[in-house]
Amino acid sequence: FRSDKEKNNVSNTNYDLAINYYTQSIKNNKKNIIHLIKRAICYLAKGYYPLALKDALKTIEINNNFSKGYYIASLCYLEMYDIDRAEKYLMNKNKRLKNLIEKNKRDIINKTRKYKSYPLYIHFLKELYKYNSFFPKLKIHFYTEDYRGVIAKSDISKNEIIMTIPKNCLITLENALETDYGKKIGKFMYKELNSPKHCLLSSFLLFEEKNPKYKYYFDLLPKDFNNFPVFYSKDELEYLKGSPFLTQILEKKKEMKKDFIKLCELIPGFKKFKFNKFKEARMLISSRIFGISIHENKTDVLAPFADLLNHKRPRQTQWYYDDNLESFVIQAIDNIKEGSEIFDSYGKKTNARFLLNYGFCLEDNDTSEYLLSIELTEEYPLFNFKKSFFQNESDLVRSFNLNNNFYESQIIELLSFLRFILFDGDINDLYKIICNSTKYNKDQSLLFYYIPPFSKEAEILVLKHLHLLCRKALEKYPTSFDEDQYILQTQKNMSFNLRNCLLLLMSEKTILSYFIYFCEYCLDLFKINSQNEIISKVSKDYEFNDCQFEFYIQEIYWHWGVL
Question: For residue 47, what is the enclosing H or E element?
Fold first, then answer.
């Protein structure tokens, strides 16, 4: 007995061999009606519905009374969501197919009553099939009017290609650059715009909104953007009180506004679009764009249907552009059961990035972050000397993404910056420390400096100050982590945006608490002078788990000659 995977492989191989055989035969006799319909059946079995339909219609052209041609044509139209044509080619004596068509009609009627946008999806899928797209094992599932997913219609095997979207269905940077306005944007986009590629594709969406060529796709795109923070109301922004994410939202708005003004200045006809409309287009692009290579040329694209897969990690699928197929491809990297939702992965991102660019947060996100801003002020020792290292006043404020990965440069730069601003000794000593830095470069700003932990006393000040900054950051929130969690678990009918805000705040508070613990743990460790006792304590504390800040501990004790 063969496994399901082996059966699938054998079946596909047999179909491919049969298709090749029938194709050769048809070349010799283009009116070989038997081999045409048999090839159509093979195509149908493999999910190549447009090809199967083409052969079935050819048999009808040859013999107008060929019943099997009508049967296969009707099945193909049914699979491609074209119920009207499926009925047209239905042979009355085939009750089974007639019942199947009626069942599909009722299903469409019921879903249309429940979801107003459902007919748009039917039209969308029909149009994709006209371009020879391939997705026979996939269907769109509505959870709510605004929340959808992609479901497996049957079992999917590991490494199986589950979707191909031909190049002529994709919207690429090159498509946008070929337009009159795109040519103008291309002349200045990389010099004048904050987000050049996103702005180019956003402009394409705006200018081509009513283009019949893209209408089937554009009609399907979201019309409600209230889940994106840049569209939050004042009351919803209050949910984020105490969070630095508010600053990120403001900066995002400013960035988009600057790009919008520049486009209005330099592109004729752009002023007819309202800023709010431009923001909507920008969020559509940022949440749906794919980066691929087409014949070794890197580009960004919008890929219809592929952008409907929701996010989950670890990923179930991978996507790429296949130069031989001239198509955007999605391939399963694991077995997927019939009826299961099929997920893509948007990558390992923090809730702040998910919320800002995609409009949602994850409840089980293991990647947390807090944006900590530190300003060099006159309160710090040797202020005037330290200030001289910066070119602009704005450089005196540095922001660092706190996370639990001590190997990341952000954490190393944070500790280096704190050692710099807290230094209270001889100016010449500080200058030597900077000059001896392994990453020091006279042509770069302080951002690129690495200042090592030069003394235990100085490092104690660094940790105490970092501890203080994190405590003050936590105090800015009107609620605690436990209170947020209680609200999340007990409040019924919670709005989607409130839920996302709570998840974001909880992730920020988690990372702040983590850094408070880090400071306290290392300060206690500094009280131990014996190398053996240090090793013993760390080994005992992390007997079953890795010490996440082991890199830092090894670094400081190596510099101090203890380890």
Answer: none
Which bin fits 210, alpha (ψ -120 to 50), beta or left (φ > 0)? alpha
* DSSP-derived secondary structure letter, 545: S
| Whole-angstrom distance, CA of residue 272 vs CA of residue 505 | 38
Calculate Rg over the CA atoms of the chain. Answer: 30
Residue recorded with tokens 């403001």 = 250
| CA–CA dist 153, 341 (Å, integer) | 10
Both tokens of 406, joined, read: 């001590």
- pLDDT tens for residues 115-137? 999 999 999 999 999 999 999 99
Q: What are the backbone angles phi and psi of residue 495, rounded to the nearest 5°?
A: -70, 155
Strands 327-332 and 161-166: antiparallel
Cα separation, 341 vs 74, in Å, equals 28
pLDDT at 547: 75
With tokens 């009808």, the residue in question is 60
Distance CA 204, CA 214 (A): 11
Q: Where are the beta strands (DSSP E) in 208-267?
A: none
What phi and psi values does residue 321 have, to the nearest 5 degrees?
-105, 130
CA separation for the pair 342, 496 (Å, rounded): 22
β partners of residue 149: 141
The structure tokens listed for 17 are 């061999």
Query: What is the C-alpha separation between 449 and 434, in angstroms, rounded?
Result: 7
CA dist., res. 34 & res. 17, Å (int): 16
What backbone phi and psi angles, to 5 degrees, belong to 234?
-60, -40
- pLDDT tens-digit series, residues 196-231: 999 999 999 999 999 999 999 999 998 899 999 999
Positions in the chain whose pLDDT score sits under 50? 1-11, 440-441, 443, 447, 563
CA nearest 496: which of 355, 345, 357? 355
Burial pattern 84-97, b for ≥16 Cβ within 10 A else e, equals: ebbbebbeeebeeb
95-114 helix and 118-130 helix, angle to the nearest 10 degrees:
130
DSSP conformational letter for 381: T
Helices (H) and strands (E) in the chain, counts: 24, 12
Cα 24 to Cα 12, 19, 28, 54, 542: the distances in Å are 18, 9, 7, 17, 68
For 47-78, how does the pLDDT look when each residue is reduced to its tens digit (9 = 90+)?
Answer: 999 999 999 999 999 999 999 999 999 999 99
Which amino acid is residue 550, in one-letter code? E
Q: What is the residue whose two structure tokens read 């302080």?
A: 446
Count CA atoms closer than 13 A to 395's CA, side-chain side.
13
End-to-end CA distance of the chain: 61
Q: Which helix (H) or strand (E) holds 375?
A: strand 370-375
As given in the structure block, the two tokens for residue 325 are 């197929």
What is residue 55's three-state secondary structure?
helix
What is the DSSP secondary structure assignment for residue 340, as one 8-state letter? P
